[in-house]
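Appendix B. Raw example, untouched.
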Amino acid sequence: MIKTDENPELLNKFLEYCLTYQRKSPNSVDQYNCDLNRFLRYMKYHFHEANADELNEIQIKDIDSKFLSKITQDDIHSFITYLSIDCKCGPATCARKISTIRIFFKYLTITTNTLKENPAQNLETPKLKKSLPRYLTLEDSEKLLKMSSNDDENKNKERDYAIITLFLNCGLRLSELVGINISDIRFDEQMMTVLGKGNKERTIYLNKACIEAINNYLEVRNTIQGKKDFKNSNNALFLSSYRLRISKRTVENVVKRELALAGLDTSKYSTHKLRHTAATLMYKYGQVDIRALQELLGHQSISTTEIYTHLDNEDVRNAVESNPLASFKG
């Protein structure tokens, strides 16, 4: 739940606008709230309007449009410098906070006309080093599935195998997987609906492996004892041992356990890395069109999907060797 009791009214109206009109996810709005709380507390300290030794102790409830109108681009730069030097924040963290500040001041100047000038309009974002997504190889993915399916010591074997199968075949986000309801699945059409970022629904097509894993799990799911229809858990696909909708933490632990069982490095791989794996394998082996992959993964921008078009060194070498001029002798 987003904590807003100590926020100034302008900030709470902004958060409400993001939730209601922009259809941002609660997680995104909570991050906006955290970023802007820190920013406004720093501004009070920066303008010598607070004497608190700790930034978190500074009260911001009284901040109004008059206070915000004093903020300049240089003041925002001072905040970013503080994050970088004092807080040891990396470029990615600073870039995210700059993005939040931009959105906030755009709302104040353009959406509501609360402020006349936008001090964040010309803010530059730190250059980020683009790194290739970490993913399991096809061999490692098959090993993970095999070990999970044969884990007879695991009382939740069918459930956990279905979780791994959906991650590796569908490229789901963690939040999307835990949110799946049985009513979201259309078995006759082999598809399901998931709720992605920004509360946007999209259709996921289920292959034979997914349907089989889900059906095998459903046979044992209904034998789980616990509270019936507690907080709508009766409709949830994946349940805990207490018949409650499975939590994100539990799924993370499931994935960590299965990775360890397969002898894979749990410090390198996670639920999100399984999403990377699904996308990479589909692009690399399935010759999936980049636009189709974008739709499948629920990416708003095609540039986000393009990270999966990377090639490893062997692919690059093979591409050069396959050039029709490779054997030409002058």
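End of appendix B.
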